[in-house]
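For consistency, the fold was encoded as tokens, which produced the following:
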Amino acid sequence: MDSSSQSADTPPATHLVVMGVAGSGKSTLARALADRLGWTFAEGDDFHSTAAVARMHAGVPLTDQERWPWLDRIAAWTAGQDACGRSTVVTCSALRRVYRDRLRAAPGRTVFLHLTGSPAVLARRMVDRPGHFMPASLLPSQLTTLEPLAADEAGFSLDIDRPRTELVDLAVARLRDS
């Protein structure tokens, strides 16, 4: 049997969505988690349309109508990985519960890791990262839109004001306990 195929005694695939506002370190932490767990990684920004990236680059926040196709592409990717029995780590801001509901509708077990931090730390990180399409001017709109995980949502939060290795260790422990 192919090692990526799921058998009756193999647990279902888990899909970890590393979420949070821009500058929270989603991509860096998600890659480190995928490496540690041996799971398939995807960068959520890669699922944006060219038009959406251009809008954000121009400092214009996306509307929900512009976000739905992006969220659907991420959910379709996790569904495809799930069908192969592969667990995943994917980045996605997932700022509102309705966005998380859209992602959670895909097959498999979806868990959210919300990376949190002070607005000052987030803004500094955004300014310090070269070549990203998301300008720091969009941070206030993201913080206004953000709906933290509710008690009934599968997931947990971690403060980004810790070393990356500590965040990875904490995330792996919390994921295994969830």
In short: The chain has a mean pLDDT of 88. Helices lie at 26-37, 50-57, 64-83, 97-104, 119-128, 139-145, 164-177. The first helix runs from residue 26 to 37. The radius of gyration is 16 Å.
